[in-house]
Amino acid sequence: MPTVTVDGHELRVEGGRTILQALDDAGLLMDGVDVPHYCWHPKLPIDGSCRLCQVEVEGIPKLQIACNTPVQDGMVIHTRTERVQRAREGVMELLLVNHPLDCPICDQAGECKLQDYAFEWGVAQARTREPRRALKKHVDLGPTIVFDQERCILCRRCVRFCREIPKTGELGVVNRGDHSVIETFPGTELDNPYSMNVADICPVGALTTKDFRFKIRVWFLEEVAGLCTGCANGCNVYLGVANNKVYRYVPRRNDAVNDTWICDAGRLSYKAIGARSRLAEPLVRAASGALRPAGLDAALGEAAGRLRRLVDAKGPGVVAAIASAHATNEDLAVFRRFLAALGVEAAGVAVVVGESDDLLVRAEKAANAAGARALGFGEAGPVLARLRAGGVEALLSMGHDVLHETLLGGVEPLAGLDSVIVLDTHHSELERVAHVVLPARHAAEKHGTLTNAAGRVQRVRPAVEPHFEAWPEGELIARLGAALGLAGFDGTFDVAAVSRGLASLAPAFQGIDLESVGDAGRPLGGA
Ligand code: SF4
Ligand code: SF4
Ligand code: FES
């Protein structure tokens, strides 16, 4: 492996890597060694067009662009010399010649590389007196993205993204010189399933998402590390939070899961957290036949009474349980212990299956189907077959995925049951037949871990606190277990302790818990 020295840091580098890649591999890029860059992106092909990343290499007379200069053994590189500084100032001055400098009304302000680099490496005074180039401020590129032509610095990241990642190639550069602009090809629009990533990688405020623009200034946002729960890939995201509300998901880099991308559907799935359809209080079916709000203790008492009566009269064989593939490993571990203590054997996990692609999107539309299986929940099919055959009198359902057309296909098969007890984050058709409904927290509102389709266990943590009553499923089940007087249930739910005990249920979790997975996650044993 070649050894190079960058500003005194000695790096052993994989052959064939460029200077920027070597710094990125070592975790030093912009975090120890500052080499500003616009056109280079770690997950896109090299362009070498912005010239901002110039560095001095001993023995080479001219400055070199770090993004396209392969490292060679013994190379000594300097990134902070007088020549480098002057070159950076020149590039910044050129980029700003025509820039509108409309930062006060630009959505990128606060997370804009042109602002940041101009502040650190630019010149304070403009030398031009000529009017700036006037271009279109609002070009609708498709259903998700708005383009401001004046702000574009022609780094072509967006063009390369569309060509190389979704491979749809809608964008190109038209015209020449300072008439160059980004456009969609005639007759097309930017509408691929990953289109909104172009707003993340655009280093300036030229590309903004219709969903987020003008919602809030980014400096008011706290970026909380979390996961998208839209499918079994478990893409890593930052949740942008302010005023106890999630305003957006943006991708969080994890090369083992999603590189630096997320799909548009997953990106917009943050809306489920604050949706009006959230279940906001426990409900119990009253004598009138209607579901009525109730206190949690009353609702748990009703659920426990129904289950106890049935189990004592007919045995646990008449009770069936459906686990949710949206619940955390910790919630599911408590559920499994609860079912074992009650003697219920008919249990499975409901998983909705839909479209997938070759990039990130997985067919299973829940974040923890693999975790549920690892913790011993089989498929829902046999449980549902038994239910349809009339062998079940009570159903305990986490979530409402069981109603999907590929599973139960509606509430009709549940209509005659003695008791239907539901734990859920959102209202659903299940309420037509439910006797007790218990409101649960979303993954963005609780501590826990989720296991993605590749067997990687990853962490979620509370980014927001619900402004209504909702509890983690694990806590609801623990309290239900206590209300039933089950052995080992005292009504408390210590998520960290449950997490540490996952391996006692499934050895694949050996050495894995809430604390040890870190922000990048860890693979299940054997995964
Ligand atoms: S729109 Fe943004 S990403 Fe695309 S070329 Fe212009 S500055 Fe670069
Ligand atoms: S691929 Fe799946 S996990 Fe990733 S962002 Fe899309 S829906 Fe979310
Ligand atoms: S980042 Fe190297 S030339 Fe643009």
Topology:
Blueprint: E1 3-6, E2 9-12, H1 19-25, E3 54-57, E4 64-65, E5 76-78, H2 82-97, H3 113-121, E6 139-140, E7 145-147, H4 157-164, E8 171-174, E9 181-184, H5 197-201, E10 207-209, E11 222-227, E12 236-242, E13 245-251, H6 264-268, E14 283-285, E15 291-293, H7 296-314, E16 319-324, H8 329-342, E17 346-350, H9 369-374, E18 378-379, H10 381-388, E19 394-398, E20 419-424, E21 436-439, E22 448-451, E23 456-460, H11 473-483, H12 495-500, H13 502-505, E24 522-523
Parallel strand pairs: 1-5, 16-17, 16-19, 17-18, 19-20, 20-21
Antiparallel strand pairs: 1-2, 3-4, 3-5, 6-7, 7-10, 8-9, 11-12, 12-13, 14-15, 14-21, 22-23, 23-24
Helix pairs in contact: 2-3, 7-11, 8-11
The structure holds iron/sulfur cluster (2 copies) and FE2/S2 (inorganic) cluster.
